[in-house]
Amino acid sequence: MAAWPPALRLLLALGTWAICSHRGTALDHRAPKLRLTGGSCRCAGKLEVNTERGWSAVCRDVEKRAAASICQQLGCGPLTVTSHFEVDSNKEPGVQAVRCAGTGMCRWQPANCSSHTAFVCSEPAPTTTKPPPPPPTTSPEPTGESPAARAARQGFAWLLGNLGSPSPACDLPVPSPGPPRLRLVDGNFSCSGFVELHVRGRWGAVASSPGNWMELAARICSALGCGSPINSPAAPQPSQLLVKWEAVVPCRSPQLFDCFNRTRAGRGRAPAFLTCSGSQPQAVRRLAGGPTPCEGDVEVFQQGRWQVLCDHRALRNERGRQLCRELRCGNLSSSTEVREPRSVGVSCDAKHLHLCPDSPQSPRSCSRTRVVCQDSKPRPAGVGAGTVASICLALLLFGILLLICGPPAYRWLMKKISKKKQRQWI
């Protein structure tokens, strides 16, 4: 095998040095694979982790030390910008996210969040290491440029041009502003949480208002399709949300989004926490054991069957009024306690029946509540399906009888009339 020309050996040495130095810090293959997507370069974008379920987005609460470590794992320079993106549940209903647990190295844990983190890491600084000197040669330099030397010179110029070209600026994708909208976040249920308002592409919490908040809260719950506001305890945990809006109370504008003003004094203010009636599964209820659907004992459907709802003296009349309205039976006539015979049922201390928990309860012996509504009158029996079928069958048989017996009967009748006329002439 012929020896390679010195120029070609120089090109190979320079190419090996350039590739190794330009690649930057190698990734730790023992750690989960990471990537930044949606940015203008490989060191900017939304952070994603390759887990067993595939590529997953990362929730926004990533510590600075962990973020710096992530930039290093990606082979990029120091962290320059951190941001976050809001997830539109209509466009991304199946987004599965993970959370970074830890300050130095992340321990990835499954999480449910609507705000994903994004990084801008600086590009790795180009190395200033000098290339290795070319190997000495004793062969005389040719007077003319050979094809191999020309290829080496062109390749060397290409490498220098690519290594010396400045890298493009790294930017994050700009989120779409979208229309104004409201949401409840960090609550125990889908219809409970801190109130956030989305305007001009950014979410911001609404400050808690000590004024006539319930009127505006009713409009918020209705706009979210969550029923009506209910009295609930304080927020389950302190919130780190940044307050950017304050409520206008009372608000007379027909447009709900006109009831919020931008605030500059958001620091130190607690965001408003709201719980709507649609937060918990609704219990199915009825009046059973009476002569009509508008009269009977109060029962709820739990654990796959109907059970008696134990009497609650303080809430007896209120529950009766609720059931009469829900069943469209008019106003309440009476709501009484029935002690004998004793019943086995479940209890509920909620003021509104639809907030009674659907979780399993231990039945106990108790008295029941008998409710009678104003429209509790025996309804007249309607025409049953069997009666309609009998009428149709009778009409069909009558028609067949006319077809069979009609012509002979007509001829016999005409003959009798003719004979009667003949007697009259005689």
From TrEMBL:
This is SRCR domain-containing protein. Residues 129-139 have a biased composition (Pro residues). Residues 123-150 are annotated as: Disordered. Keywords: Disulfide bond, Membrane, Signal, Transmembrane, Transmembrane helix. Residues 1-26 form the signal peptide. The keyword Metal-binding does not apply. GO terms for biological process: T cell costimulation. Residues 34-122, 182-277, 285-374 form the SRCR domain. It comes from Cairina moschata (Muscovy duck).
